[in-house]
Amino acid sequence: MSDQTASSPSSQDVRREESPERLARPLIRLAKASGISTSYIDQLGTYVEIRDEVLVSVLAALGVDASSDDAIEASLETSHRASCDQLVPPTVVVFSGAATRVPVHAATAAPELSLTLENGEAYDGDLNALLIKDADADPAIPHAYTLTMPGNLPAGYHTLHVADGNRSADATVLCAPARIPVPEPVAQHHRWGWMTQMYSVRSKESWGVGDYGDLRELLHDAGKQGADFMLINPIHAGTPIPPIEPSPYLPESRRFLNVTYIRPQQIEEYAELDPDARAQVDALHDSVKAANDNPDPLDLNASWTAKRKALWVIYQHGRSAERQAAFDAFVKAAGPDLDAFAAWCVAFEVWGAPWEEDKNPWFSTLNRDSPEVAELVREHQDLFDFQRWLQWIADEQVAQAQAAAKDAGMALGLMQDMAVGVHAYGVDVWWNPERFAVGSVTVGCPPDFYNQQGQDWGQPPFNPRYLERTGYRVYREMVHNVFAHAGAVRIDHVLGLFRLWWIPKGEGAKGGAYVTYNYRAMLAVLSIEASRVGGMVIGEDLGTVPAYVSQVLADHGVLGTVVEWFARVNNSPTAGDPYADPSTYRKYALASVTTHDLPPTAGYLEFEHVKLREELHLLSEPVEEFQKAASAERDAMLKLLVDGGWLDADAAQDVPAHEQEIVEAMHRMLLNAPSLLLQAALVDGTGEHHTQNQPGTSTEYCNWRVPLHDADGNLVHTDEVFKNPRVLSLAAVMRGE
């Protein structure tokens, strides 16, 4: 095998695709047959080829041996034989109004077909009449047919049965609406809402960190000011005890909720506590409530340590028969996954953090079938049940927040954010490792203009082969649960539906390769689940994203993402190029001025991103060059604002003195966009300057722990947010006043 090392962008030629010689190489053919892209075009339009070593490692993560020339030839033959021998694909995607053809590779001349609908009823049509002999099939297939799926199937998850002599196989049929319908209130005219990191906004009732009670109040107050949605950080499940992972984008499980955001005083049983128990809970609250007025980074661990003790007191109090029945119903509906999560939590608490392998290597040596795990649950049944109870309470409080949003008149209410993946030591990986490509690869993204060193998020990717084999059940359950208490779902890094950047261990973020996924299957799931609740789906399609991705999303009714700071004429990412007028933005999009991976707009205008990246040594070029590019970027934005009549020329000459005026001008300009949803950041309302998250860092910066401040550096509490004159002024701008 030869080394096909890609040269640096500065020395790349003008090619846009691989040469015939490269495409003929066995390793390249094997990689492509396995769903691995062997080259890509980066955000600057540079053609990049993936190195051989990377391809070999990524193939190994998929269970494909490419360790030698002989192994590659054997793997190619195995892949071809498996394709020929497959009776029917395990997952079939059907979109209404589009013909779907399914290959059936039989050993006999008369395979038998039947279809069971999601509700258990048998499809009464004649499938065999839709089966046609395939005259152009591979000669290695004895009897090749093409089944045209019937066009009158209801939306849902159905099962196609195929019997062929001594063989039989079932295929999951994902039958979905071709497009996610736009809810009527949004179809009437574009709607606007807020984006916020809910943990950053606290009240006197909080425990040092914003919680579901604060969220309920924020949603209610925002709705009264005319907002129709509020996008929050992901609220996926974290660790049961400290240390708490600050990043909401690195959860332990996306199937369940983050219980550290529970507000104990909001639990029904809190009001029923006896005086001693009530005093215990109140004393624990008193021990941390002073942190609500602390302007320093949040202490997540102190907050949860006190709150968890209080929740244990409330849990031990017990419940009425009616409430116990509701809890039992929740446990039954959640199924085995809830028990798996609770067992992992108990193991974490009793045996220690799973990444502390030197103390007790339970994560790597035990699994769901280990007798030690069953014994652990039996010995700690109280902790096991406590974890299930916490999930029930969190589910109740998120539901209450969404109810408050709808009661306040919001068209959508809560917009939940779905993270890309899960922690490598989380319950999903431990209990169901077969779902992931674990151990040898992690997910990230290649270098782009805003992250010049690329990013490694440290998360194991879903195994696309597992998803196909199982009809995307794990993805279906996850999407269903997120939509349970949300009017809209934002998918972080929506490119992950199409392809993910797999990074082999030791290669660094630049040394990865894209692995393709069946985006049609996942879009079908999103379409089914969103349509059932009248919800919307937004995909974060920023960065190195091929143009076709945004078009496919729009075709299926999934909104893309447009950010003013990134929106250049002709989609050019080069700083200093003209900014696009918002009138040219996509209709099927969530349009905003900024994103959580940038400083608030006030800070961005004053080059907080330049100062922070220099301080953290994140630049791959001299700071003077980055500052020059940032200045050109700001100048280009100010020029657009002035030329469009949204900002006076005098204000553009003195940015610090006219900070609020410029921020509001950028939002006023946003109203010119045809996009269905428009979004303002709460930090832009208060005038905050501090960055919430600096990509490319973990412990180097206080990511995801910055409390909400105003322009003068003062804390802004929950009940003060929508009394703040600057917030009210920006809300008026968003209302078009």
Walk me through what this model shows.
It is built from 26 helices and 23 strands. The protein is an alpha/beta fold. The strands form 6 sheets. The chain has an 8-stranded parallel sheet with strand order 20-17-14-11-10-23-22-21. Strands 3-9-8-5 form a 4-stranded mixed sheet. The radius of gyration is 27 Å and the shape is globular. Residues 1-13 have low confidence and may be disordered.
Q: What's the multimeric state? A: single chain
**Spans of 5+ residues with little confidence (pLDDT < 50)?**
1-13
- Give the spatial strand order of the biggest sheet: 20-17-14-11-10-23-22-21
Radius of gyration: 27 Å
Anisotropy-based shape: globular
Query: Which structural class should the secondary elements be placed in?
Result: alpha/beta
- Please describe the biggest sheet, giving its number of strands, its sense, and whether it closes into a barrel: 8 strands, parallel
Strand content: 15-25%
Mean pLDDT: 94
Brief overview:
This protein is an alpha/beta fold and 737 residues long.
Q: Topology of this protein?
A:
Elements: H1 20-23, H2 26-33, E1 39-41, E2 47-49, H3 52-61, H4 69-85, E3 91-95, E4 101-106, E5 112-116, E6 131-133, E7 143-148, E8 156-164, E9 167-176, H5 184-188, E10 191-196, H6 212-224, E11 229-232, E12 236-237, E13 253-257, H7 275-288, H8 300-317, H9 321-334, H10 336-351, H11 362-365, H12 371-379, H13 381-407, E14 413-418, H14 427-431, E15 441-445, E16 455-459, H15 464-469, H16 473-483, E17 488-491, E18 499-504, E19 513-516, H17 519-533, E20 536-539, H18 547-555, E21 560-563, E22 589-592, H19 601-605, H20 608-615, H21 623-643, H22 649-652, H23 659-670, E23 677-681, H24 682-686, H25 718-721, H26 725-734
Helix pairs in contact: 2-4, 6-13, 7-8, 10-13, 12-13, 16-17, 23-26
